[in-house]
Structure formats: structure tokens, C-alpha cells
Amino acid sequence: MTCSLPIDFKSRIAAVDRKSQVFAPTLTHPAARYSCMKLARSINCCSIQMDTSAAAEVDRVAPEVVRFVAGSGDGVADSNLKRPQPSVSTLLMNFDNEFDPYDAVSTPLYQTATFKQPSATENGPYDYTRSGNPTRHDLESLLAKLDVADRAFCFTSGMAALTAVTRLVGAGEEIVAGDDLYGGSDRLLSQVVPKGGVVVKRVNMADLDQVEEAIGVKTRLVWLESPTNPRMQICDVRKIAELARKHGALVLVDNSIMSPVLSRPLELGADIVVHSATKFINGHSDVMAGVLAVKGEKLAKELYFLQNAEGSGLAPYDCWLVRRGIKTMVLRVKAQQESAQKIAEFLSSHPRVKKVNYAGLPTHPGHALHFTQASGGGSVLSFLTGSLALSKHVVESVKYFSITVSFGSVKSLISLPCFMSHASIPAAVRESRGLTEDLVRISVGIEDVEDLIADLDYALKTGPLL
Questions:
Q1: SS3 sequence of 271-324
Q2: CA-based angle 395:400:403, to the nearest 5?
Q3: DSSP secondary structure, 195-234, as one string
Q4: Along the 466 residues of the chain, how does pLDDT read in single tens digits?
Q5: Between β-strands 413-415 and 439-443, what pairing exists: parallel, antiparallel or unpaired?
Q6: Same fold flag, 88-326 and 329-462
Q7: Three-state DSSP class for 175?
Q8: Which residues 6+ apart lie within 8 Å of 446 measured at CB?
Q9: CB-hemisphere CA count at 13 Å for 329?
Q10: Could you tell me which of 10, 25, 163, 336 has the fewest CB atoms within 10 Å of its CB?
């Protein structure tokens, strides 16, 4: 005899667990799992029915299993001993998926637009993928853990994430933003945001006097990057956060160049961290995604509302791609950074290079400050040759660097920002900010660094004479 019970063994364990006030929503002990597996064999997975005798057995044994998992301390040498926190690389490989009843090693793809509900008047944990999806929830939970955030939210791109943040600022309020930002951010701040009545002030974020003077009673948001893109300036996140806090303003840090592996701005005082997950988080140039990681439940609720209301949440398949790519993030970031350091040192000694912008070099003016808020220089750098003709030759002559926008890929990339990522900024404005046309930006991939150095050396040596 069978009964039509929508039985899920873990759900029953969790229900008993809540009654006993023991937190063990999943079973991790091998013996407990074995007991569960024996009971689970009685479940007819096709009809989602279970023998009534098996159902009764679940109800009987579940409290015992929970008590076994929780443990009473008997026979334990040190019941107060706590496990040390894992490193980022270990966390990436061992982050528990809470949303799959079958414990798949790889996070499943829930490629669905909508979810069945238990009744006409009750709602399940998910109803419509725009509002939430298990695959996205899993990725967001992992990203929140990496950034030491209360919540994280995945968007269709980094710009979609940044646009959501601008919705927090009302007409008549102010945004104080750095003057050396990603070109897309600059376009949003200069051409879109002001149309809503928001006042945008641009300052050199590396100059604390300028920052302090710009922040006032109407300032709602302070927006910065460190290192900046593409000139690699370093900003004092801690002190800027202190200045903003005096006026009740939020601090947003675009951490795309560093990634959670090298820097965690929320621990430095920021309220919101944004990542273009297209870059290092995913790392393979095959998906576009953005992330907001935040402190504070009130702020998290506001941003979730915007993500849902505007329909800007990341699609399940894209979440699955990012979830797959992120597993190797630490290995990639460290390998790319090691190569970037060698390339920066090579370029800084090259007779045809006038200046190298890379925080990993001791000669960088922000080197000491940078290493108080990050653990490495990263793998994005820029350099100047003093000649647009030479810089153009370098970009077009290298063999192992692809001419394209973006960074953070396993493939090495190269560009002239004034003609690509920052082309929307008027030439006079770029010039006033020190962004000259001969500036070359490179993103170092995972190719053999000696090949990359030889490639750059050849391009520099064969370029036109100044």
C-alpha cells in the first residue's frame, strides 16, 4: 500500500530538527547518511510515493539520526574544538550546495522559468526565476561568503549591478565618484544618472583632500576603484569610508581588478562591493555577469527588490557557467599575478617604455598603501611609450595578446583604452585626467610568461622610432 505523500527525506529531518532546535538541515556523518540511504530505498522516485511503513520509519528514526549527528559529547576528546576557517581555494571546492536533494558534486542547473507551488494560497521557496532560482541562489551564497558579505546578488552584467546601485540615489542627492574609472561606469555617471536629477561630482580619489571637500550633507554614495582603471591609481579605502560615514553616505568599491582573492573591501569599511564577474570570477571570457556584495540587511533588501523589480538577475545557465569557472579562480589569479609582476618589471626596464602603472612595483607611488588593503598587485597593468604610433604598433604586433576590451581572462588581452573601453569619454576630459592616447593596458593570462615577455619585447623593438 502506498500513500501520496510529497516526501523528501531531508525535509523530514529538517522538520524534526527544527522541533528539537538542533541545526542539522543536511546529514554529513557517514553513519547517519547510511541510515538515510536505507530508508530512501523505499521511496518510489518516479511517483514520489513512499510505503506507509517506510514513512512511519522515517518519523521514528529521524529524531535519533538528528541526535546522532548533533552529538551529545560522549567520547569526544574536546567538544568545544572548532574547525579553522578554510582558505578561499578550499572554500571554492567545498562550498556546500544547500539546494540539491541529491548532493551532486557539481551544482545542478535549474533551467526553468517557473516553479510549481504547494497550493493555490501557499508559496514555495521559489516561484519565478526572475525572483529567485536555486542555481543563482547557490552562486550568490558562495560569493557572499567570499566577500565576507551579508548578501550577494548576481546581475546580467557589471553595469546592470552598478545601475541598480544608482537607483538608491534620489533626485537632488549626490554621488561623489572617482575621475579614473572604467569607461562604462564613466558613461553611466556622466550621461545617464544626471537625467534623474542626481548630482555627480568627480574627484581624484587618491587625493583625500579633494574627497573630503566633495563629500557633503547631500552625498548619498561615494564610488571608487582601487586600483583604478586604467591608470592603476591607489585609493585609501579605509579613510574614504571614514569620511563618507561622517555624512551617512554609502561607499561603493569596484573590486573587479582585484577579485575576492586579493582584496575584500567590505572589511576595509565599504558598504557595497561590485565585481564584473565576467572578469576574474568567471575567468574564461564566455559569460557576462555582475555581482553586488553588501553589508547590512536593510541595504540587501533594497538591492534585492531592485534586482527583482527590474528583472536584472543573472540567468540560471550563466550562473552555472560562473559557478563552474569560479572553482579555479584562486589558481588563475595567483598564476596571472606572478606573470604580471615579471612583465611589469621587464617593461619598467625597457628603453622604449616611459612609465609602467602597476601597484606591484615598489616604485609605484601607491605601492605601500595598496599592500595594506590587498594581498597582491593583480594581473592588470598599463604602460606608456610616449608615442601613439609606437603604442599602436605594439598592440597590433603582439602575437599572444588579443586586441580586445575586458580583462581577467585566462587569455592575455591588450588594448588602447582611449580608443576602446574609454572611448566614450571626451578627448579633452581624458587628457585633463592624465589618460593619454599612448597608454596601453594589458591583462595577463596564463600563457608562459617568457613567451609573453618575448612577444612584447619584439613588438617594442620593431616599432617606429620616435
A1: CEEEEECCCCCCCCCCCCCEEEEECCHHHHHHHHHHHHHCCCECCHHHHHHHHH
A2: 40
A3: GGT-EEEEE-TT-HHHHHHH--TTEEEEEEESS-TTT---
A4: 444 334 444 444 444 344 333 333 344 444 344 344 444 443 333 333 344 454 555 555 555 554 554 554 556 677 788 888 889 999 898 887 777 888 898 999 999 999 999 999 999 999 999 999 999 999 999 999 999 999 999 999 999 999 999 999 999 999 999 999 999 999 999 999 999 999 999 999 999 999 999 999 999 999 999 999 999 999 999 999 999 999 999 999 999 999 999 999 999 999 999 999 999 999 999 999 999 999 999 999 999 999 999 999 999 999 999 999 999 999 999 999 999 999 999 999 999 999 999 999 999 999 999 999 999 999 999 999 999 999 999 999 999 999 999 999 999 999 999 999 999 999 999 999 999 999 999 999 999 999 999 999 999 999 999 8
A5: antiparallel
A6: no
A7: strand
A8: 332, 335, 336, 339, 410
A9: 31
A10: 25
C-alpha cell at 382: 598599463
Closest CA to 310 of 158, 141, 156: 156
Is there a contact between 177 and 189 (Cβ–Cβ < 8 Å)? yes
Distance of CA 290 to the CA centre of its chain: 7
Cell of 2: 502506498
Q: What whole-number distance in Å separates Cα of residue 350 and Cα of residue 338?
A: 19
456 grid coordinates? 612584447
Are the C-beta atoms of 333 and 279 separated by less than 8 Å?
A: no
**Active site residues per annotation:** 130, 182, 254, 279
Q: Does domain 329-462 have CATH number 3.90.1150.10?
A: yes
Which residue, among 209, 319, 268, 285, has the nearest Cα to 446 in the 3D structure?
A: 285
**Position of cell 529521524?**
62
- Terminal CA-CA length for the chain: 90
Give domain limits for the chain: 88-326, 329-462
- Answer whether the bond into residue 86 is a cis peptide, omega within 30°: no
Instruction: Please check whether the domain covering 88-326 is classified as CATH 3.40.640.10.
Output: yes
Using alpha carbons only, give the angle 311, 259, 445 rounded to the nearest 5 degrees: 110
